[in-house]
Design goal:
- The protein has twelve helices and twelve strands.
- With 341 residues, it is α/β, with parallel strands linked by helices.
- The strands form two sheets. A six-stranded parallel beta sheet has the order 2-1-3-4-5-11, with helices on both faces. It has a six-stranded mixed beta sheet with strand order 7-6-8-9-10-12, sandwiched between helices.
- Helix 8 runs parallel beside helix 9.
- The protein is elongated and about 70 Å long.
- It starts with 6 loop residues before the first helix and ends with a strand.
Length: 341
Amino acid sequence: MNVSVDSNFMKKPSKATITDIAKRVNMTTVTVSRALNTPEKVKKETLAQILEVARELNYVPNAFARNLKSRESRLFGLVTASLDNPFYGEVIKAITREAKRRDFSLMLFDTDGSPELEARAIDTLLSYQVAGIILSVVSDEDDYHPSYLPKLEMAGIPVVQIDRKLAAAPFSGVYLDNQESGYRGICALLDQGHRHFLVVGGPERSNITLSRLAGIRRALDQYPEPTSLDVLHGDYTQGPARNAVSGYLASGKRPDAIFGLNLLITLGSLEAMRDHGVSREDIQLLSIDQVPYAHLYGDPIPCISHDTYALGLSAINMLLKKIDDPQHVPSDEVVRGQLQR
């Protein structure tokens, strides 16, 4: 008995190409390529149309889309903006412990605050066909739109954001209750009788800084007595905070208290105080997040402390649940801080 088989039936489905997308959207391959690789150079309407068709065709750059979903991976990536910040120590510990328990391996990237290194890390993780990504971006400002985002969306890989929220990204995440942390911190200083404050924050347009300042101003607006507030901006590292506070103190200003909006900022502020011969009896210090080894400079520094281990555990569990069930749509989770004297 002879059986004829259609040769077309035996062919494996071909992988979608830029040409396929261009034909569907009736545009040139140059336009499609530009949209996929440098989306900031393409009109929003054009980009949205191209991305929609690319997703329909299951296109992912570098031609690894077709087996990405079918091949089981036990590898996931963690991309963080700075391993210099002790804040991430317990976060990473929680993530790695739970990953080991579930027989996953971790690729860790420290982008050192560089958008270029962040983009390179994402490209590397996509090339390794990882099962998922936990992402703490270099900036949470509204105008930060990394060029890798369309590729990440098209890959269909589960992504969970942590600490910093990438504007306009469709991924869920685990964050701190930043406004409430600012509110509780300044209330603690008000309760101690302080009325004149210096707040030292991160970048001026950072949503974390803006939220923490909103909480601080809300508390001051509610307070019945007169208060004053000065604000210095830098980044979330120690050196710029030290320089900013040093310049402030050099001008002769002396607040009742300095409120550092993260632990490295607080350490930088403490350094500046020591450089100018100002003790903590002269100016009170309060930090968002616990300052490790602060006792070496005297008494521990009061803080709004967050359970960063719980932050990391929530993030990895959210990612693993999405890996196990691709149809699951997680909701954002929030970790609240507690006053620690």
